[in-house]
Amino acid sequence: MSITISDTSIDEFHLQLGLLQTLDVGLIILDQTYHINLWNTFMENHSGLLHTQLYKKNLFERFPELSESWLKHKIDAVFLLNNRSFITWEQKPYFLKFKSYRPLTSDAPYMYQNVTLIPLSSPSGKIEHVGILIYDVTDAAMGRQALEAANIKLKLQSQTDQLTGLYNRGFWESCLQQEFDRFARTPLPSSLVMIDIDHFKKVNDTYGHPGGDEVLRQLATILTEVTRTTDRVGRYGGEEFGILLVGSDAYQAQSVITRLQQRVDSLTVNHYNHDIRFTLSMGLTEISHTFNSHEQWIHMADQALYQSKQNGRNQVTIINAEE
Ligand SMILES: Nc1nc2c(ncn2[C@@H]2O[C@H](COP(=O)(O)OP(=O)(O)OP(=O)(O)O)[C@@H](O)[C@H]2O)c(=O)[nH]1
């Protein structure tokens, strides 16, 4: 392999070359016209291309997949400013796409790489070459990605009711509070519907707890289907649910309630050859500036729900604040 970077003595040259070759890091040395002066063993092993095949070849002609204008800009800045430059795997997962051979992270789709561009000065002190160091950071990248995925999963779990997949009470109430705060600034109406399954204890007593659970799950699916993705559906307690209908006044909310009643009327939950049917009692309250807190809003909708129960169940009661 011939290298014409400097007038380094032969001994020193061989020592350095040996070091460069055994390095577990990729090294490419480019001249000012982006021609390859060195392609070390790491690069040979991972690219399948030998130094002799690439020596004095233009990097961008040999690797058209490289983003030429972006990389030239980076390399030129290193020549001009005599400063190091870095590219992390978060910015670009890899410099050149190599297979990942890491046994611990065998499911990595490719080798993640961090890259450092370093100015190389000749004995005269002029910067005539740039070194591109390529580090295999697959383990770190995969570890970080797994951690981020686990954090997202944990966050979702902390917001979700396990049985139904709806928002749990804590998160749902925080959505309601946000909506309440939003209403103080922009007067777009919203409505709150509190929903309770009638005689649910009897469902459990007759069909067992798993039968009751199946009813809760199927109702949750319907609640999600009759609402918009911008609405917020939560499990408030055992067999009580809350729907925040964002941007709907009490009148518009009634059309959602009608859709919900129709779906529940026509639903038969089949559980181990038993057909389970049920009805809902509901309370509806539109948001109001007279409420001091979102809790007051829930309280009024709960009162409306209580009246539906008192009046014989399977119905909706609307109570709005007097402005
Ligand atoms: N299967 C099941 N049952 C639950 C769950 N959470 C609460 N429950 C049951 O829900 C029932 C609620 O009973 P009650 O509060 O008396 O209400 P109800 O029987 O629906 O009567 P009304 O609301 O007055 O119509 C109780 O039997 C609880 O054990 C749950 O996660 N799964």
TrEMBL record:
Root EC class: transferase
Xref: CDD domains: GGDEF
PROSITE patterns named among the record's database cross-references: GGDEF
Cofactor(s) this protein cannot do without: Mg(2+)
MF terms in GO: diguanylate cyclase activity
Annotated ranges, domain GGDEF: 188-321
Transmembrane segment boundaries: none
UniProt-listed InterPro entries: Diguanylate_Cyclase, GGDEF_dom, Nucleotide_cyclase, PAS-like_dom_sf, Rev_trsase/Diguanyl_cyclase
Pfam annotation, one family: GGDEF
Family annotation (Gene3D superfamilies): 3.30.70.270, PAS domain
Any one biological process term the GO annotation gives: negative regulation of bacterial-type flagellum-dependent cell motility
Catalytic activity reported: 2 GTP = 3',3'-c-di-GMP + 2 diphosphate
EC number: 2.7.7.65
GO annotations of cellular component type: plasma membrane
PANTHER family referenced in this protein's UniProt entry, alphabetically: DIGUANYLATE CYCLASE DGCM-RELATED (PTHR45138:SF9), REGULATORY COMPONENTS OF SENSORY TRANSDUCTION SYSTEM (PTHR45138)
Name of the protein described by the UniProt record: diguanylate cyclase
Organism: Neptunomonas antarctica
